[in-house]
Design goal:
CATH class of the largest domain: Alpha Beta
Bound molecules: zinc ion
CATH superfamily of the largest domain: Metal-dependent hydrolases
Distance between the termini: 49 Å
Number of strands: 18
Structural class: alpha/beta
CATH topology of the largest domain: TIM Barrel
CATH architecture of the largest domain: Alpha-Beta Barrel
Helix content: 25-40%
Largest sheet: 11 strands, mixed
Strand order of the largest sheet: 7-6-5-4-3-2-1-8-9-10-17
Shape: elongated
Radius of gyration: 23 Å
Number of domains: 2
């Protein structure tokens, strides 16, 4: 009996501990089709290039943030700490990160090997992740580095294409060199959000949609996530939401190569409309109780099961008794609108433009939410 009580107390304390540790952690519900929505950060740095922390800190941050996948992507060419930290083996950062994982909680977080091929224009900065051996990318020719990455089956993407030193007007553009890489199947994705350099690019989103590139959000973190993004206080690093069949590195890689992603930056969700819709419909639902006596004004609870705030513009025929057409639903919260349905209906359906989404250049996702009205 004593042991049982102790076990129960230990379990409860353990659960409380987990709840506290996961308060800031991102967690998304499954999609309507039953796919999992998993958070990935595929662009980070440590002292093995120009970052300010040891790789184990990246792993600990990722665990706190509830990431499912983390890539360490050191600059191959830019090595400002090399006098203090000689770096002959370019897989070392990944190895150190992996060792930190084994000392911690194991399989909840997948750490993958990567590198940032860092050259001037027209190449710019290109990341390769899911590498077997980053040393093979140390070549004179940048194109040869990208080919070597592809020979290893890497997922390759263009970084911060709107970075002002490369594009003074802040407008993302592809070079002819990039177009050749895409035509040859060597470049698979593009950052539309980067936490370190000029965060948000609807032009990059337009390029992604036009060229069939996977949409990515990354932190490109060099310092600490908490200091840069106020993580733990409601902030979060920009990241990529990967819509995968299962919770495994293989399924996530398949989804990345298929373009089944949404970039998440602040409260903004950016991506192909069909992908953004999957995430939004996983997050939002209506919960309805019956009409109050004699009334044709129906209380409709809009429920948000996700760790981001939604801003909706009502585009339905019906208007609301208690609020304007712009409705904000806080993260993991709900908001009740009182819908003037005209007559008592058996099913309520509300149309919204989701203002915190981008599905094209200056385009928002339109959705319809519905629920049966109990008698
Ligand atoms: Zn870069
Ligand atoms: Zn970088």
């Amino acid at each position: 009996m004593q042991t049982r009580i102790l076990t129960a107390i230990t379990l409860m304390l353990g659960m409380a501990g987990i709840a506290a540790a996961h308060e800031r952690a991102v967690e998304f519900p499954k999609t309507e089709e039953g796919k999992v929505i998993l958070a990935a950060d595929l662009h980070t740095h440590t002292v093995f290039s120009d970052g300010e922390v040891w790789p184990s800190i990246r792993v600990k941050e990722a665990r706190k943030d509830g990431l499912q996948m983390l890539a360490v992507t050191e600059h191959l060419e830019h090595q400002p700490h090399k006098e203090d930290i000689p770096h002959p083996d370019r897989n070392r950062s990944y190895e150190v990160a992996t060792e930190a994982l084994e000392a911690g909680d194991g399989r909840e977080l997948f750490v993958i090997n990567g590198a940032e091929v860092t050259r001037g224009q027209p190449h710019g900065h290109i990341n390769a992740v899911f590498l077997d051996d980053a040393n093979a990318l140390l070549t004179d020719s940048p194109r040869a580095a990208i080919e070597a990455a592809n020979e290893q089956g890497a997922f390759v993407f263009l970084n911060h294409p709107n970075w002002v030193p490369q594009q003074p007007d802040g407008i993302a553009r592809l070079s002819d060199y990039h177009r050749e890489l895409i035509a040859d199947g060597l470049l698979h994705g593009i950052e539309v959000a980067n936490g370190t350099l000029d965060g948000h690019s609807e032009h990059a989103l337009e390029i992604a949609l036009g060229e069939g590139l996977t949409v990515l959000g990354t932190s490109d973190i060099h310092g600490l996530v908490d200091w840069t993004h106020d993580a733990g206080n409601g902030g979060h690093r920009p990241m990529t939401l990967v819509i995968a069949e299962t919770r495994s590195p293989e399924a996530m890689k398949t989804a990345l190569l298929n373009g089944d992603t949404v970039a998440w930056n602040y409260d903004d969700l950016l991506g192909k409309a069909e992908n953004v819709e999957k995430v939004v419909k996983a997050c939002l639902s209506l919960s309805v109780s019956s009409y109050p006596d004699e009334s044709a004004v129906l209380p409709v609870d809009i429920v948000n099961n996700c760790p981001l705030n939604f801003t909706l513009q009502n585009t339905s025929r019906v208007t609301f008794q208690n609020t304007s057409d712009v409705v904000r639903i806080e993260r993991d919260d709900h908001f009740t609108v009182h819908a003037r349905t005209g007559e008592r209906v058996a099913e309520v359906s509300l149309d919204f433009s989701v203002l915190n989404t981008q599905t094209g250049f200056r385009e928002n996702l339109d959705i319809s939410l519905s629920a049966d009205v109990p008698r």
